[in-house]
Amino acid sequence: MSKKIKTALVSLACGLMTATLVIASNGPATVDLKGPAGSKPPVAFNHKAHQDKNKCGDCHHGKTADGKQDPYKDGQAIAKCSTCHELGKPNDNIHKNCKGCHTEKKAGPQKCDECHVKK
Fold first, then answer.
1. Dihedrals phi, psi of 89, to nearest 5 degrees
2. In whole angstroms, how far apart are CA 42 and each of 34, 87, 88, 97, 115?
3. Any bridge partners for residue 63, and if so which?
4. Is-above-0.85 flag for pTM?
5. Nearest of 115, 102, 119 to residue 30 by alpha carbon
6. What is the structure's pLDDT at 83?
7. What does the DSSP 8-state code read for residue 56?
8. Which residues are CB-neighbours of 102 under 8 A, at least 6 positions away?
9. 90 C-beta neighbours (distance < 10 Å), count
10. What are the residues whose beta carbons fall under 8 Å from the beta carbon of 71, sequence distance 6 or more?
11. Are 35 and 42 a contacting pair, CB within 8 Å?
12. Please, is 43 exposed, middle or buried when counting C-beta atoms within 10 Å of its C-beta (0-12, 13-18, 19+)?
């Protein structure tokens, strides 16, 4: 195999590995948001679609040592929403954030059964 072909193959492999790492660092394409047992069906949240239209800090944030919300910083580790937020109540922070954004942008679901789809 010629040196040019070997160089091209190594470059291609490095490019693919870099692309894989970038994609992997963006989190999952979908996230199942589950409330407590007996609550409405889980929400199959399309994370990829929201990433394409928003900044990470529009939804994600950190937490200070004393438990207060800390603005998102690029590259920070992102925990599950349920780590800090109680899920499954219509007035919880997840509902306020999602419905608030959808109302503000006049886009996306705003009624319970539009997100909590029965299977």
1. -115, 140
2. 4, 10, 9, 17, 8
3. 69
4. no
5. 115
6. 80
7. G
8. 108, 109, 110
9. 9
10. 57, 61, 62
11. yes
12. buried
Q: H helices within the chain, ranges in order?
A: 3-25, 47-53, 93-105, 112-115
CB 93 within 8 A of CB 87: no
- The tokens for 75 are 């590259």
Give residue 52's identity as a one-letter amino acid code.
Answer: D
Domains and CATH numbers, the chain: 28-115 (3.90.10.10)
**Ordered mean pLDDT values, 10 residues apiece, the chain (119 residues):** 58 44 67 85 92 91 89 88 78 85 91 90
Burial class (CB in 10 A: 0-12, 13-18, 19+), 31: middle
* Tokens, residue 85: 């937020």
